[in-house]
Amino acid sequence: MRSSEPVARAGRVQLMATCLCDAFYDDVAAATVQVLEHLGCEVEFPAGQTCCGQPAFNAGDWPASRRVVRHAVRTFRGDAPIIVPSGSCAAMLFHGALLEFEGEPDRPEVEALGRRVRELGDFIVNGLGVKSWPGRYERTVAFHRSCHTRGTESSPAAAALLRSIQGLRLVDFEEGEQCCGFGGTFSVGFPNISSSMGNLKLGHVRAARPDALVSGDMSCLMHLGGLAEKAGEPLPMFHLAQVLRDALANGGLLP
Amino acid sequence: MKFQPIDQAAAALGAEKRAAVQAGSKAGHEKRTKLLFEHYSDPDRLRRLAGEIKQHAIENLDSYLPAAEARLLANGAKVHWAATAGDACAAVLGILRSRGATKLVKAKTMVSEEIELAAFLEKHGIECLETDLGEFIVQLDGDHPSHIIKPILHKNRRQIAESFERHGLGTYDDTPEEITRRARRFLRHKYLEADAGLTGANFVVAESGRIVVVTNEGNSRFCLAATRCHIVLAGIEKIVPRDRDLGPLLNLLARSGTAQQLTVYTEFISGPRSPSQPDGPDEMHVIFVDNGRSEVLAGDCRDILRCIRCGACLNVCPVYRQAGGHAYRSVYPGPVGAVLSPLMLGGRFSEKADLPKASSLCGACNEVCPVNIPIPDLLLRLRARAQREGISSPGVPPFGAWSVLASRPAAWRAALIAGRAIDHIPTRLLPVPALRAWENTRTLPPWRGGEFRRWWEKRRKR
């Protein structure tokens, strides 16, 4: 079980936007900034950042992955918490990287980086002690628990925040514990199984008739959204940060 | 386009088989979870404890194995050591020959599948009959088990009824009770005709020499009680230190495997019949099988030897549910098999180096494992090993160039801008297999490379 240590007050934080948001989902990164600033955080964005190294790590190319993790160590200096709008990238840095740096001389630095990394929802609820979310969001929403948040406080945190929003109705769906089928390189090395898993997930989600699917990981949503759109039946999908930001906007709470 | 073998196997799996696998594994998983959380306030703590017991046992086999051997000998059993599958088969044959035995009844044991015992014995003129209902059906059909504890998870009752009819076990009738009744009728007198019985061992206790066998059908009890000679096949990793360690392990095994509080039969066998006991085998042989296990123990994936073969990781695994057990081309399928099967090949690792790739690394296997094996971490270690050994992997893009790009900020930012081209070229024409694999079933979102950075800069200047 891993969860954020409570911090006394919202202070300086560093944003790790993730490569997916850098390339595809700029609004998710922007929403993360707005949400953190609403909470009183002073957000920094180290411009040299690239990726957490997970794609190569999962593919087995650990030397390539270590090169990228070392770059992250160099980029995210200091001791401020590093906030990531992704359970997957966060888990890469506090768990995966430790595995691939076993026996490497700079493992302590990688470990130190991992200790500073916080998934967004976990940071808000368990790090800052924020238990409910202001504003309004008039939609029925299903929440997809991404697999890399297993054994962490991230998904309960996100669900608690969503549930607390005025107007938002959170619906459960069948087999919520099952994977969406993305799995990084798995999605292209095993396209048939990956797509079948995704379609099972979409079927369960649709059966609950939500207006939108929400998750703390854009990689899952990229896969599920891509499947839904290719099938000609798009389903609105949002990152947790977008819902939190939109709730603030709807409540007139954004500057 | 060339994809991973397990993905191709899943694509080729018939709808009927897939439905059988999905329904069986889903039901198994859901019952397990319900029972475990009904019975224990914190099953995870129990899983961690059981994991520590087994980890301790495998890391101290050098003292526990001799201790078990000494106890077994004192209890009147004979002990054999088999380094390879061939040695194990030869040991069984040697025991049978020394007694002039020609008929063997056997209970379900995965080690016997692993060493291909039945085929070996048949070749040497020994009749070797499977008495577990599932394994009996597998044997009738010349098939292979597709699940560790539910060998015929891939079959439905219609297929079984057809097979029974084909093999002269009565006209077509697919009621489960009738199928069971016919198998029982056929098997019952076979026990009495047999010269020897063979079982596996779920646990072997070092301090007492007790062999523990769990079953639901009572067939193993027949195998070991109705014949004069009981042969036990046990992997060396089956050792637990003390009798009291069986508490958590048995409680977890039955709940994880078959969603039972306890299996119908839990047998504790300490040796052959004693002079004061009127029935039971006169001879008991325990064959400890290595067959690659000590090499696994010496490596960085030794945690997999904790496995108690409950099958929970198969049931919960989304890949197993899509592909079925046969796709893994191994005696041990599913997540545990994806780790164990390539490892047990030793120097021939490359033949099954694709198995550890067959996972989205979702971690469900670790979450349900009764001995808390970090299966995703082990899969990742094996992927790294495959990469180190230069074993190619169809459908998975290389990451060397990417890692250079992702460690040079200026190049990264330039790529974010250049990436926009992807919106304007017909990607199906690109010679990038990964991209085509994606786009066959999924759209790509519009490229927005660098947009967040522009937003950030603009806002900062305000």
How do the strands and helices of this protein lay out in sequence?
The complex is a heterodimer of chains A (255) and B (462).
Chain A: E1 12-15, H1 19-23, H2 26-38, E2 42-44, H3 54-59, H4 62-75, E3 82-84, H5 87-100, H6 107-116, E4 117-119, H7 120-127, E5 140-144, H8 154-164, E6 169-171, H9 186-189, H10 191-207, E7 212-215, H11 218-230, E8 237-239, H12 240-250
Parallel strand pairs in A: 1-2, 1-3, 3-4, 5-6, 5-7, 7-8
Chain B: H1 5-12, H2 15-39, H3 43-59, H4 61-74, E1 78-82, H5 85-98, E2 103-106, H6 110-114, H7 117-123, E3 127-130, H8 133-141, H9 157-166, H10 176-193, E4 196-199, E5 203-205, E6 211-215, H11 219-225, E7 229-235, E8 239-240, H12 246-258, E9 265-269, E10 283-289, H13 293-298, H14 312-316, H15 318-323, H16 334-344, H17 364-368, H18 375-388, H19 400-405, H20 409-418, H21 433-441, H22 451-461
Parallel strand pairs in B: 1-10, 2-3, 2-4, 4-7, 5-8, 7-10
Antiparallel strand pairs in B: 5-6, 6-9
Helix pairs in contact in B: 2-12, 16-18
Write up what this structure looks like.
The complex is a heterodimer of chains A (255) and B (462). Chain A is α/β, with parallel strands linked by helices and 255 residues long. Helices cover 49% and strands 11% of the residues of chain A. Chain A folds into two domains: 12-127, no CATH class; 140-250, 3-Layer(aba) Sandwich (Rossmann fold). Chain A contains twelve helices and eight strands. In chain A, the strands form two sheets. Chain A has a four-stranded parallel sheet with strand order 2-1-3-4, with helices on both faces. In chain A, helix 8 links the parallel strand 5 (140-144) and strand 6. Among the domains of chain B are: 40-291, 3-Layer(aba) Sandwich (Rossmann fold), CATH 3.40.50.10420; 404-461, no CATH class. In chain B, the strands form two sheets. Chain B has a six-stranded parallel sheet with strand order 1-10-7-4-2-3, with helices on both faces. In chain B, strands 8-5-6-9 form a four-stranded mixed sheet. The longest helix of chain B is centred in the N-terminal third of the chain and has 25 residues, at 15-39. Chain B is elongated, with a radius of gyration of 26 Å. The mean pLDDT of chain B is 95. At the A-B interface, helix 1, helix 2, helix 3, helix 4 and helix 5 of A face helix 1, helix 15, helix 17, helix 18 and helix 19 of B.
